[in-house]
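Quick one, tokens below:
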């Protein structure tokens, strides 16, 4: 079946969404990971963390994040750094274009936003290297705004659990962004976003998801389909 924005409403029934939220929130109370950028609401620190986290695992980022903030503890400190200096610090993470974009973004923040990390999704989207995910992650973590995020890990959970079928490029899939907004609770969305990210990293992993110890398995479309296929073929 092709899942469109309309048919997705059949898959995201209020009862199923409510159950998903409650189970995942319960899981998060015991399992959220601790990272230095999760212990702060300082917009500059979160802005730096989100830049470093782009296409890079959180565990890999910790050391570089700490070194970065000890060298450039504030935006004004970073403003005087050259692209080469930033690049040297980010070197262990690869993706060297990040240094250039970060440098450009900082100059723009100084010029257009009086040195203050922009406070809205629309403003953040004007910065080089900041897409919808990064903008919303900053808004929800630093400014506690109720904005859901979607990356490939979050998309995978929605597709498997609700039986949705997003486009190949998940970050640009309207259907999945709509699902992310619909499924998010009305309060503590920042914490909710972290729960989804950690659940995708620990349980609903890309390869070999841990359905046998997943609190969502009894209502998960993917897991239930696998059971039907197994019983049909006698495995
Ligand atoms: S049951 Fe399996 S596929 Fe479904 S959400 Fe849990 S880990 Fe993911």
């Amino acid at each position: 079946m092709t899942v469109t924005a309309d048919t997705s409403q059949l898959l995201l029934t209020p009862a199923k969404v409510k159950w998903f939220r409650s189970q995942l929130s319960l899981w998060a109370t015991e399992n959220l990971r601790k990272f230095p950028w999760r212990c702060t609401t300082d917009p500059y620190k979160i802005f730096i963390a989100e830049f470093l986290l782009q296409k890079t695992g959180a565990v890999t980022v910790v050391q570089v994040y700490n070194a970065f903030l000890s060298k450039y503890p504030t935006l004004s400190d970073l403003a005087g750094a050259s692209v080469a200096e930033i690049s040297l610090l980010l070197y262990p993470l690869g993706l060297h274009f990040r240094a250039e974009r970060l440098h450009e973004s900082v100059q723009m923040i100084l010029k257009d936003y009086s040195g203050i990390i922009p406070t809205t999704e629309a403003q953040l989207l004007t910065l080089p290297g900041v897409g919808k995910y990064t903008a919303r992650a900053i808004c929800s973590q630093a400014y506690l705004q109720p904005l859901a995020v979607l990356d490939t890990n979050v998309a995978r959970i929605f597709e498997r659990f609700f039986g949705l079928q997003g486009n190949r490029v998940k970050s640009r899939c309207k259907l999945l962004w709509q699902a992310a907004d619909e499924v998010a609770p009305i309060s503590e969305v920042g914490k909710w976003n972290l729960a989804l990210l950690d659940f995708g990293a620990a349980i609903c992993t890309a390869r070999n998801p841990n359905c046998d110890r997943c609190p969502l398995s009894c209502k998960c479309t993917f897991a239930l389909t696998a059971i039907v296929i197994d019983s049909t073929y006698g495995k």
